[in-house]
Amino acid sequence: MNLLILNPNTSEPMTASIAQAARAVASSGTTITAVQPAFGPRSIEGHYDETIAAAGVAETVRLHGAGADAVVIACFGDPGLDAAREALEVPVLGVAEAAFHAASFVATGFSVVTTMTRTCVTAEHLLQRYGLASRCRGVHGTDIPVLALEDGGAACVDLIEAAAREALARDRSGAIVLGCAGMAGLCATLSARLGVPVIDGVAAAVRFAEALVGLGLRTSKQGDYARPLPKQYVGWAAPLGW
Ligand SMILES: NC(=O)NC1=NC(=O)NC1=O
C-alpha cells in the first residue's frame, strides 16, 4: 500500500525524521511518501499556527493525495483532519487520535507529555472531541520548542523522560503518549528507560492506517465527510474539481 505521511509544518528536517520513524514501523508492503505544505509555519505551537497549517493540509492533500491508499497527518494537533477526510475517500488519520486510541488499549489511564505548555489545551480539546478525555489523566508541557526536535531530539530526551516520570507518578497513569510528531524517534529509548508503554502517534497512525486499508475501510461519504461542494475559492487554488 501507498501511505502518504503529511507533516503539516514546513520544517524539512522534521519531515525527514517523521518519515524515518514511519518507515521504521511500516510493514514490508507499505511504501511511505512524506510531504509538507509549500506554505505555513516552520513549527506549530499555538492556535494561529494550527489555523495556517490546517489550510496547508487542505492544499497538500489536494496536490498529493491522489494515489495514496491512506494519509497520516503528522502533527499532534491533528490540523486539517476533517478537511482532509472530506477531500479524500481513503482513510486519513491524525497522530494524536491514533496515539490516544493506542494508549487506551494498553492502560486504563495515560498521560500526555508534549512540547510548549501553551499547546496542552489543544490536546485537551482533541481528547474531548475524540471521546477519550476520561482515559487521559493529565497533559503536561515541557516547554521544549518544536524545532528543538528537528534533529530527532536526542538532546531533549532526558527532559522528556523526567516529565514523563513526574506525570506517571502525579497522574497514577500507566502509559505515556508523546505529544509531538518530532518526538517519534525517541519512543524506543523512552520506552526502555521508563518501563511503561510509550506511544508515538506516528507509529500508531502508520499501523492503524495499514489495518484500516487491510479491512477495506474508507472514509464515509455519507454526511459531513462528503466531498466539499464545488465553488470558487478567491485567491486560492483553481476551483476544486472533486
Ligand atoms: N504539540 C506539538 O508539539 N505539536 C506539533 N507542532 C509541530 O509543528 N509538530 C507537532 O507535532
UniProtKB/TrEMBL annotation:
Pfam family of the protein (one): Asp_Glu_race
Top enzyme category: isomerase
Record keywords: Isomerase
Coiled-coil spans in chain: none
Gene3D superfamilies linked: 3.40.50.12500
InterPro entries the record matches: Asp/Glu/hydantoin_racemase (IPR015942), Hydantoin_racemase-like (IPR052186), Iso_Racemase_Enz_sf (IPR053714)
Signal peptide boundaries: none
EC number(s) from the headed UniProt entry: 5.1.99.3
Keyword Hydrolase found: no
GO molecular function, one term: allantoin racemase activity
Family: Belongs to the HyuE racemase family.
Name by which UniProt lists this protein: Allantoin racemase
Originating organism: Sphaerotilus uruguayifluvii
